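User: Please run a holo structure prediction.
Assistant: Happy to. Please share the sequence and the ligand.
User: Here you go; the ligand is cytidine-5'-monophosphate.
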Amino acid sequence: MSSVTVRVPAKVNVQLSVGPLREDGYHDLVNVFHAVSIFDEVVAHESESITVTVGGNWADRVPIDNENLAIQAARALAKHAGRTYGAALVIHKAIPVAGGMAGGSADAAGALVACNELWGLGLPFDDLMEIAGDLGSDVPFSLLGGTAVGIGRGEQLSELPTGGRFHWVFAVAEGGLSTAAVYAECDRLRAATGAEIPWPQLSDPLLEALGAGDARKLGAYLTNDLQPAALTLRPQLADTLEAGRQYGALGAIVSGSGPTCAFLATDAAHADRMAAALTTSGITRTAIPAHGPVPGAVVV
Ligand code: C5P
């Protein structure tokens, strides 16, 4: 086999409840992930060494050195297999970079699946999930896809049933936000109020909405504890969220650590109309309609 191509989805968090800061610098979460139909493609070609090149949207903002999570993933997989392997990774980006949609995690998950196949390792899914959890809190979900709740750092996943397809619009912001910076701002805002931080709990009405495929109800129960921090760091996102509500969004929320904003639509046609309205009004340069849930990383 001379090359393997893998398609990996973006995610939005339909519930992101953040517990107190842990001693290891992470937060315990109840993190309900939902995979949506914006896909990066990761191709692994036979090669002597592990390298990466990036094309597609926002490619110039992706690091191609040791910071690159796909390179880290390929190296971690080779180490797990106990041998030196090479792969020339070619990533085609459609997922916003540093946008709160797990774009870097998607590329890492894609690299794991592609190299597992290219190198003929045949490692089972559970092994890939374990390596994924060490690479980043969101990487296991990028492998799994669908809709799932993550606890711990977000890496301990249980699949959640959904009763239908949900339609979304994602308004891409200029420039990204650092996940670590948004969590730190969340801690700072909380310390300033001095209020006790409750232990995160999975929302029952949100589960019911997902199970019933009820977009109206899901829209009403979307929550993101990182949103106040993202809005403090990027105040103009408040206008973006308000614009989506004006165009009839059933729910409007910052996606993960942001700055991408997510809008839940009534159906595919409404999502298309909302995306067009958001761009023509100048509120965002790029608004992407998408649906979920979709599968995780798959060989195509
Ligand atoms: O796990 P990952 O490397 O993606 O996390 C990036 C950063 O986000 C961490 O360094 C940490 O600051 C923050 N984070 C957190 N609690 C989590 C997940 C991430 O504080 N559960």
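Residues 171 and 287 are 4 Å apart (CA to CA).
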